[in-house]
Amino acid sequence: MVLKVRNAFYNNFDTGFDTRRIVPTSQLLQRLVGMPVQRNKAIVGANAFAHESGIHQHGMLRNRNTYEIMRPEDVGWESSQMVLGRHSGRAAVEARLRALGYLLEEEELKLVFEQFKALCEQQRVVTDATCRP
To answer: Is residue 117 part of a domain?
Structure first.
């Protein structure tokens, strides 16, 4: 496979590797040796393509290249993750609501965001499941 990161610099160098197998291979190795990879490890760690900080999320929503020099799909992850938590901003919450099919007016969004922040005081991460009545 041709290098996807900085390939112009490397003149489209072909490694011969299927980079989409990096994460699955790492996960297999974790199971075989019984030693988990650190969550913050580059490329193969669970947080490698996860964004919780409001500024990172906002940058990702505008242009994913701001914080990711490679696509998660190219190394075996399904996609990037927007982790909604106490550091998340309105842009990320609004984007998640839109993805779920909710288009809110400004005042409604303000109220939902206030409730979201209150919920974040009770739990570290807010998921779709924790928001259901």
So the answer is: yes
